[in-house]
Amino acid sequence: MTEPSRFDAPLPGLRIGNPIDDVATPALLIDLDLFEHNLALAASLVASHGVSLRPHAKAHKCATIAQRQIAAGAVGVCCQKLAEAFALAGAGVTDIHLSNELADARKATLAAQLAAQVKLSVCVDHAESVRQLGLAAAGAGSRIDLLVEVDIGQNRCGVSTVEAMLALVDEIARHPSLSFRGLQAYHGGLQHVHAWQQRLELAQQSAARAAHFVAALEQRGLRGLTVTGGGTGSIEFDVASGVFTEIQAGSYALMDRQYGELEWRDSFRPAHALHLSATIMSTPAADRVVCDAGLKSLTVDAGLPALARDRNAPALHGWDYAVANDEHGILRRAPRHSAREASHEAPHEAPAWGSQLRLIPGHVDPTVNLHDAYVCHRGGRVEAVWPIEARGMAW
Amino acid sequence: MTEPSRFDAPLPGLRIGNPIDDVATPALLIDLDLFEHNLALAASLVASHGVSLRPHAKAHKCATIAQRQIAAGAVGVCCQKLAEAFALAGAGVTDIHLSNELADARKATLAAQLAAQVKLSVCVDHAESVRQLGLAAAGAGSRIDLLVEVDIGQNRCGVSTVEAMLALVDEIARHPSLSFRGLQAYHGGLQHVHAWQQRLELAQQSAARAAHFVAALEQRGLRGLTVTGGGTGSIEFDVASGVFTEIQAGSYALMDRQYGELEWRDSFRPAHALHLSATIMSTPAADRVVCDAGLKSLTVDAGLPALARDRNAPALHGWDYAVANDEHGILRRAPRHSAREASHEAPHEAPAWGSQLRLIPGHVDPTVNLHDAYVCHRGGRVEAVWPIEARGMAW
Known about the structure:
2 copies of one chain form a homodimer. Helices cover 29% and strands 22% of the residues of chain A. The first copy, chain A, is an alpha/beta fold. The first copy, chain A, folds into 2 domains: 20-27 and 271-387, Lyase, Ornithine Decarboxylase, Chain A, domain 1 (Beta Barrel); 32-256, TIM Barrel, CATH 3.20.20. In chain A, strands 1, 10, 11, 12, 13, 14, 15, 16 and 17 form a 9-stranded mixed beta sheet that branches. The interface between A and B is large, with 78 and 78 residues.
């Protein structure tokens, strides 16, 4: 423990049991009822299809959430970066799949050390990475499970031919410190396709591509392998694919505007459990007010945040978050949808100076990566503060 | 000091004196020669016009950089958030202007406490904020200097009429714990206007608007006031305006792609001192390679990063950073500019698996806010590691 200095300034109002509206802004909030609903929803979906859930921790970067997901039936979590895996392992997570490639011998050495402490698997798509990991695990006296990443339409990492996949399987077999465990087959591009039917069809095409690689391994006598992939936008199709043994969805636990705006059917529709609180800090004009949350509190790579208009939100009808500056969000009157609206409705009242609002971030993953903790609430009161241990763990 | 745990994993290769290319990626790098060049450039520009420089610390969030700027002649720094001011004050910065409004009585109380420890000024554009600060300073036995923010074209915060400005000046005068010190007049919108001549004209228009407010104060007998504003894109016009007494430029110290692409004249042209290092971690296709730096290491609110092609960068001609995913950057072959090029040049070689590159982030402020430290280098070697104390200080 460091001594508190005369410059320590904890977030005003942040105390367990306080009304959530008393917490100063901006703060990243989790509605625990909705979060638990989302966890139960995904757990029940995968269980009903006999597949495993390995939620992606890149979407929350929080050991407490990882442990909650595991308590709800998940077999472990995914991490996207080695530093992220170290941060979560240090906070007690014991089963991690690194769903990404390493291209640095020193990172391979660290992965081998981590594999001596927790159950660790790593993706590969290049023979040199296999050799680095094999050497590192031999040196550390550990064993690393490897999954070959295959490209099923994402056009990012991963091998795209059966021959390239088999060459890597052969390379892995040359290293007694490595075990070939199966395939990673992830298609990020289809996750945000708006129309449910189109998403279904693309997910089926991707699953068919994955099945093509699996068939080639089965011809070699390799069976009972892990096939890991899938995401929040395709989970209901992935569980039914007959190909995936393990689903990597991450955003479902907290959700964001981007996922919330997809067309969903009732089979799977996670709730917005994550909000960013903000305060109206300037009311300079009748058609423009300014809040204290901008690009340092949320990211706009997937578009602007939405104003929450649910049980967590005050009435802010008729206004939109229109511009994100570094530390400011400019709210403007939303355009009227019809002349009838314009002539029959009184203009919506402007949000009051000093009043709070709740924003639904456009994209959960990079937004979470800006914050050090979640302020978790239930029944209108602060119930817990969860550190975001893997925030900023970028390597 | 906490005991190192078995899960501690420092960034591989990060040791003072090591070759900078040995530091694992992604890492946020400062070229110290270029950084010092930028500091000297701005210091000399303001000195030659007899105005003060109060660099904006929101652009670097680092006490060491703030101290370097002050050592180079700056009168203090600006912060945009109270938590940011606390973080820098805690690291030894003693003169801070909070260039933003507060709309929370508890924040006013904290500001009053901070004003008892360091020289602090705060912006206001609402009478209730003045009252909160007046009450808080009276309670803390401190004195807070206030600047009224006036809108000179930014259309964000700030009063837009002389009457509203004077009403706030009158309100401030009612509080013995407050002092009216002058105006903040900032126009962010003109900072990134590409053409030098157009930027000049807009800066002159903005300065004329600021002068209009100043004249009304002078009519009241209020003279010798601070007029603070300006930015990296307009600094050379602001220093010569005859209106601004203090310039708030921030990005000039490190720079970014957005500012670098403006049309500059030789009078003021800061250098790219900031880079994000990255590693080619996957080479799946002849026209596509993938690096390990995406939206968790840089932001794209002002566009994609550029590949550095200077003394800090390896030869990566003919390739662009084309897509930013959460943890990946996809590089593609840049389009040829002419048929002549296409027919006469051999295709540029693809970057090698495991090789490093240097990216110039699109927008310095939110990118810096993702990182915990700068890795500072000179002559190809790590010279220092500077913590980014105010990272994530969003309230």
